[in-house]
Amino acid sequence: VLGTAQGVVAVGLGIPSRIDHPSGRAVGSVNIPLADLDLRTRMEERFGLIVGLENDANAAALAEWALGAGRGSRDMVMLTLGTGVGGGVVVDGRLYRGWAEFGHIVILHDGPPCQGSCTGRGHLETLASGTAAEKAAVAAFGPEATAEELVRRASEGEELAADLLAEIGGYLGSGIASLVNIFNPQLVVLGGGFAAAGDLVFDAAREVVAREALQPAGELVRLVPARLGSKAGVIGAGLIGFEAAEHGA
């Protein structure tokens, strides 16, 4: 983060880990080997600057709320669909600083095992992520198939591929419906690499949300694609850095 006259004044970091904000520790991670690390202190010692630390999906959510698809809203949920499912929430114009590990909402209590270090089963990211799409593609089209191929086949009108993406969208909608019932957001922003599937996944999710979320929220909430793309996390980390510089980490 650059000051007007004094050069760099702070560093903002967004990492795929659960953060203990008072201490600045990375408590644990599912998809990377990072746990129990006093990251903020280490980075402050390395750079000699104030460091703001946040979960990467929270950082992306903050960026989309401030500058992207959520601009102008007061209450917003964001899900990032990639290797797993990350999440962030803005409530009454403020970023919620809890873990927001929406990828570990239980969708099927006896479903397939979760990934990484998670020992649960049937979690949202097991069923509605880019990784889930790739597994579905491999099962349907062979060991060399990818999530991108699945999306391409569906966009070209192949019924099996479209049905597989709709199933993934249904699981996604189940998770979103729970979030709508908790937070009653004006909109849900969907980003991350797998969000490129767009309405091939989102339409099924919208149907489930409209059916399963309490009314009128289920009918009123909008599911929209993110606008900032792969830069959302970096932009959000910058905003976290500004916040740390202004208020202290």
What can you see in these coordinates?
The chain has 249 residues and is of the alpha/beta class. It folds into two domains: 10-57 and 231-247, no CATH class; 72-226, Nucleotidyltransferase, domain 5. The protein has helices at residues 39-47, 56-67, 124-127, 130-141, 147-155, 159-183, 199-212, 217-220, 232-247, and strands spanning 10-15, 18-20, 25-28, 50-55, 76-81, 85-91, 94-95, 187-191, 222-225. The strands form three sheets. A five-stranded mixed beta sheet has the order 7-6-5-8-9, with helices on both faces. Strands 1-4 form a two-stranded parallel sheet. A two-stranded antiparallel sheet has the order 2-3. Helix 6 crosses helix 7. It is globular, with a radius of gyration of 19 Å.
CATH architecture of the largest domain: 2-Layer Sandwich
Mean pLDDT: 93
Helix and strand string, N-terminal first? EEEHEHEEEHHHHEHHEH
The CATH superfamily of the largest domain is ATPase, nucleotide binding domain
- CATH class wording of the largest domain: Alpha Beta
Number of separate domains = 2
* Biggest sheet statistics: 5 strands, mixed
Spatial arrangement of strands, main beta sheet: 7-6-5-8-9
Q: Which stretches are low in confidence, meaning pLDDT under 50 for 5 or more residues running? A: none
Describe the global form.
globular
User: What is the count of helical runs?
Assistant: 9
User: How much of the polypeptide forms β-strand, as a percent range?
Assistant: 15-25%
Helix content: 40-55%
The span between the termini is: 13 Å
